[in-house]
Amino acid sequence: DAGVTQSPTHLIKTRGQQVTLRCSPKSGHDTVSWYQQALGQGPQFIFQYYEEEERQRGNFPDRFSGHQFPNYSSELNVNALLLGDSALYLCASSLFGTPNTEAFFGQGTRLTVV
Amino acid sequence: EDKVVQSPLSLVVHEGDTVTLNCSYEVTNFRSLLWYKQEKKAPTFLFMLTSSGIEKKSGRLSSILDKKELFSILNITATQTGDSAVYLCAVESGSARQLTFGSGTQLTVLP
Which domains does chain B have, with CATH numbers? Predict the structure, then answer.
């Protein structure tokens, strides 16, 4: 049973560039949430996708956008990269409408902006 | 704004010691509290707590939730070097069941 997979694992970008991160949810899951984890901090919620729509958004600027595909996989796009966007980006998958079940996390993408 | 505070921020103990990690929270529309262990990258699930006063146990780890006082503790007995990790507390809330995390407790277990 494949867990949550993210790609790439590491990425280095220059300020002002754009980046796309990808996530495939755990088999049987239909909901994908994205989190940003800065060094020494806990993950922060960016947004959640279900049925190909953004359902909930955290306190992140519009430079952060996403997409969910019919196969439930998801992309996170960040435009006009800033140095402060350097972080570990985690994807978590879950099954919509199933309380008392935990979200599963991928290994993350380490983004470095120089 | 939802808030989760963990203490201590870091802890260094020797193998065999018992540790208690703390988590307090203030959230609207509480659904559950979760504990995760993060060694390198992916947080791995430890416990989900929804009811007050019911201890959850897995081997040397146990956790309990107090919904009246808005806190949870995670206990690890007979610690091993493999327990060294960041322990994250998160509260699930809202219709999207989003997670609000604390900053984590960095546990280091020395041989």
Answer: 3-104 (2.60.40.10)
Give the per-residue pLDDT at A1: 60
Q: Do A102 and B44 touch (CB under 8 A)?
A: no
Instruction: Please write down the HEC assignment for all residues of chain B.
Output: CCEEEEECCEEEEECCCCEEEEEEEECCCEEEEEEEEECCCCCEEEEEECCCCCCEEECCEEEEEECCCCEEEEEECCCCHHHCEEEEEEEEECCCCEEEECCCEEEEEEC
In this prediction, residue B51 carries a pLDDT of 86
| Partners of B19 in the β-ladder | B76
Nearest to B88 among A42, A56, A94 (CB): A42
Q: Between residues 31 and 70 of chain A, which touch chain B (CB distance below 8 Å)?
A: 33, 35, 40-45, 48, 55-56, 58
Distance, CA of A25 to chain centre: 11
Q: Considering only CA atoms, which of A106, A109, A111 is closest in space to residue A2?
A: A106
Instruction: Give the span between the Cα atoms of A24 and A49, in whole angstroms.
Output: 12
Which of A10, A23, A45 is the best residue to mutate to test the B interface, defined by the most B CB atoms within 10 Å of its own CB?
A: A45
Residue B7 has a pLDDT of: 97
